[in-house]
Design brief:
By secondary structure, the protein is an all-alpha fold. The chain has one domain (2-114). It is 69% helix and 0% strand. The chain is built from five helices and no strands. It has helices at 2-21, 25-46, 52-66, 79-92, 99-114.
Length: 126
């Protein structure tokens, strides 16, 4: 059952990418949210923190907001909070295999903070 949750999360990630190719940002957001919920349930049930699929899902969720211009208000999950917690975990438990995520998450958190979280560019950017 637990492995099935991660597989369902991966399926939701794939469905989100299909929705994005169809220019359905709302559908992509709902699939990413469903995948994040599955990954979170897996974590709670097993005590595992930050499986790779959850890192991929939260990264895609942040990119949907930051680059896809989907407003935070239309997202159903706490992007800043979840991204911050996962970043904190990655910093507390450094792993070379996850260095890229740690680097990107730091940038995304800075963009969320500096842009007021609304996905607009920081001063001086276009």
């Amino acid at each position: 059952m637990d492995d099935a949750r991660l597989q369902l999360a991966a399926v939701d990630m794939h469905l989100a990418s299909i929705a994005l190719r169809a220019r359905d940002k709302t559908g992509a957001a709902r699939h990413l949210e469903a995948g994040l919920a599955q990954a979170q349930a897996f974590e709670k049930r097993t005590g595992t923190v930050a499986p790779p699929v959850r890192l991929a899902l939260i990264r895609a969720y942040a990119e949907l907001h930051l680059y896809g211009k989907v407003p935070l208000a239309s997202l159903r999950r706490d992007l800043k909070g979840e991204l911050g917690r996962l970043y904190g975990f990655l910093c507390d438990k450094p792993d070379p295999k996850r260095a890229a995520e740690r680097f990107v998450f730091a940038i995304y958190l800075a963009l969320l903070r500096d842009a007021g979280g609304n996905g607009t560019p920081m001063k001086g950017e276009r």
